[in-house]
Write a structure and sequence with these properties.
Blueprint: H1 2-7, H2 10-16, H3 19-47, H4 56-98, H5 108-125, E1 129-136, H6 139-165, E2 171-176, E3 179-185, H7 191-206, E4 209-211, E5 214-216, E6 220-227, H8 236-256, E7 261-264, H9 267-289, E8 292-301, E9 307-318, E10 322-324, H10 326-335, H11 339-354, E11 362-367, H12 369-372, H13 377-388, E12 395-400, H14 408-420, E13 424-430, H15 437-442, E14 447-450, H16 452-462, H17 469-488, E15 493-495, H18 501-508, E16 514-515, H19 526-535, H20 541-548, H21 554-559
Parallel strand pairs: 6-7, 9-11, 11-12, 12-13, 13-14, 14-15, 15-16
Antiparallel strand pairs: 1-3, 1-6, 2-3, 4-5, 8-9, 8-16, 9-10
Helix pairs in contact: 3-4, 5-8, 6-7, 11-13, 16-17, 16-18
Bound molecules: ligand C2E and calcium ion (CA) (2 copies).
Length: 560
């Protein structure tokens, strides 16, 4: 294709060579002129041999003329053919530069151009223009688990289904990877009809797709943004990019809302995106300024009431934003690629803090799904353990159940690699995700942590009026089922979110387990933990010795 495109400028030159046709025409005129003189001479000489022979010079000129005409004509025919071929090549090159080769949809560049054309046409048509951004859900997993061939088949079939539903004046584009889009002028601005169309689109794509690897299922998340005719346009390209960005924000919102759906853009999404960007900047600055600190939540053996360890939880006291919850900053740090450095810094500090605890106490850390995809994670943890001289068997790595949605084989390999370090691995937030019985059996978890949302409900039902007793029984059943599942698989259990004595009592009746929650106190900083452990006589020997030594005399230090 590149050669054809490079040849294109020569097309003009070829067209200019039509001059050749002019030369041939001149030759014809000359032929007529010379022929008019020579031919009668030839004819006379033939009929009457005594007549003077034709002038040799003129005959030669005539023959040369004939040769020139033939040559000129042939050249002209060749040129026409060449021009035709080049025109075809130009058309094909243009087509290829606008089309995605796999799906035949418009490509990103052409989609932007079409959108600009549609926006420009609005001045005449007075019709709104919608841009619909579409992203396949979990396409990476489909590719990883079934291979790129099956991935291509899925993309192709999705594009067919999208094209089949495209409105008559709409354009379907593939913006890259697993991202598609529609550009469509709207007959009327009735959101209802567009919504019906979007419902049909998501439903159509969600039907199973037959591939070489069998039937695969994929869903899409879509975002819709509309430019109305009464909205000003100063710069066409800017307006197109803005509309695309807005549809993109709406699409991300659809993902966040649970995928397999569409969302309309609204202005709050722009504000949210701005906040997220500001938050990213603040996280970077906070990391440099050391604003993140580890806090520790007690973990208790419910039977004996003994303290058995702590879970490290990140805390952020931002200079600009004040206290920010990890539920807010962890997902942002995950998105902007800062979770790795943030988590490593916190773990390093936690391992150092935990060295002053009794060797009987364990340290639990949370590892995010993003970190779990890092093949170097075990090596990084090993380095941290060696660097702080903390025994691996006292470290417990908590992996959220949400991770099991990802590539299971990769998760399994990661768990095995982590366990090879000698650390323990727990399944966090058990009950909220998608762990199947098979996964629980095959993945070598050392512990499951029943999510606090179920445990917390136990109090609600414990305090419920007698007529809600069946409600209580139902909640008991859920926690009971989760506990029994763990017991049946012989995996030890921790219950999170024990907020009061009534929950503790209910849990104690369910069997042996560890527990944690606000009943035992909120997560506290390293100094508060040391104070607590000192009261319980659970500090390490070295920490006890250090504590027993008198503080250096500041006056002495000064004179030294
Ligand atoms: P998680 O791992 O499930 O942590 C337990 C959360 O429950 C903590 O919230 C804790 O403060 C809270 N909690 C503990 N006991 C109770 C209770 O009795 N009642 C109630 N209502 N809540 C209780 P926190 O610290 O806000 O952390 C939220 C989540 O943020 C954590 O959930 C964890 O997923 C994540 N997170 C925290 N620190 C880190 C970290 O360093 N790395 C990663 N990757 N994630 C972290
Ligand atoms: Ca946890
Ligand atoms: Ca949890």
């Amino acid at each position: 294709m590149g050669d054809k495109v490079n040849d294109l400028p020569r097309l003009d030159k070829a067209q200019r060579d039509v001059v050749m046709l002019g030369i041939a025409t001149a030759a014809i005129i000359l032929f007529v002129g010379i022929g008019g003189t020579v031919m009668p001479q030839v004819a006379r000489h033939w009929l009457d041999s005594s007549a003077a022979p034709p002038d040799t010079a003129l005959v030669n000129a005539l023959l040369l003329n004939i040769a020139l005409i033939i040559f000129g004509w042939r050249r002209y025919v060749d040129l026409r053919k060449e021009i035709e071929q080049r025109r075809e090549a130009e058309k094909e090159a243009l087509h290829l530069s606008q089309i995605d080769p796999l799906t035949g949809c418009l490509n990103r560049r052409c989609a932007t151009e079409r959108l600009m054309e549609a926006l420009a046409a609005m001045a005449d048509t007075h019709r709104a223009v919608a841009f619909v951004m579409i992203d396949l859900d979990g396409f990476k997993e489909i590719n990883d688990q079934n291979g790129h061939q099956a991935g291509d088949e899925v993309l192709l079939e999705v594009s067919r289904r999208l094209k089949a539903i495209a409105p008559s004046e709409g354009h379907c584009a593939r913006l890259g990877g697993d991202e598609f889009a529609f550009i469509m002028p709207l007959e009327n601005e009735d959101p209802h009809s567009l919504e019906l169309w979007a419902c049909e689109m998501t439903g159509n794509v969600a039907r199973p797709i037959q591939t070489e690897m069998g039937a695969l299922e994929v869903t899409i998340s879509a975002g819709i943004a509309v430019h109305r005719p009464d909205q000003r346009i100063d710069n066409l390209e800017g307006a197109a990019r803005k509309l695309m960005h807005r549809a993109d924000l709406a699409m991300y919102h659809a993902k966040k809302e649970g995928r397999n759906r569409f969302c309309w853009f609204d202005l709050s999404m722009e504000a949210e995106a701005r906040l997220r960007r500001e938050m990213e900047v603040a996280i970077r600055a906070g990391l440099e300024r050391g604003e993140f600190t580890p806090h520790y939540e007690q973990q208790i053996d419910l039977e004996t009431g003994r303290l058995v360890g702590f879970e490290m939880l990140a805390r952020w006291n931002s200079a600009e934003l004040g206290e920010v919850s990890p539920d807010i900053f962890i997902p942002i740090a995950e998105n902007c690629g800062l979770i790795g450095p943030l988590s490593e810094m916190l773990i390093r500090r936690a391992l150092i803090d935990a060295r002053s605890w009794s060797p009987s106490l364990t340290l639990s850390i949370n590892i995010s799904p993003v970190q779990l995809r890092d093949p170097w994670l075990p090596q990084k943890l090993l380095k941290l353990l060696l660097g702080s001289d903390f025994p691996a068997n006292r470290l417990d790595v908590e992996i959220s159940e949400a991770c099991l949605q990802e590539n299971l084989a990769a998760v399994q390999t990661m768990i095995v690699s982590l366990k090879n370090l000698g650390v323990r691995v727990s399944l966090d937030d058990f009950g909220t995700g998608f762990a199947t019985l098979t996964q629980l059996r095959t993945l070598p978890f050392d512990r499951v942590k029943i999510d606090r949302s179920f445990v917390g409900e136990l109090r609600r039902v414990a305090q419920a009026s007698p007529d809600l007793i069946s409600d209580r029984a139902q909640q008991d059943h859920i926690v009971n089922a989760l506990v029994s599942l763990g017991q049946g698989l012989q995996i030890p259990i921790t219950a999170e979110g024990i907020e009061d004595a009534s929950i503790l009592e209910t849990l104690r009746g369910m069997g042996e387990m560890k527990g944690q929650g606000y009943l035992y106190g909120k997560p506290e900083d390293a100094a508060a933990v040391v104070k607590r452990l000192s009261e319980l006589d659970m500090l390490s020997e070295s920490a006890k010795t250090a504590a027993a030594q008198p503080a250096p005399d500041p006056g002495h230090r000064k004179s030294a």
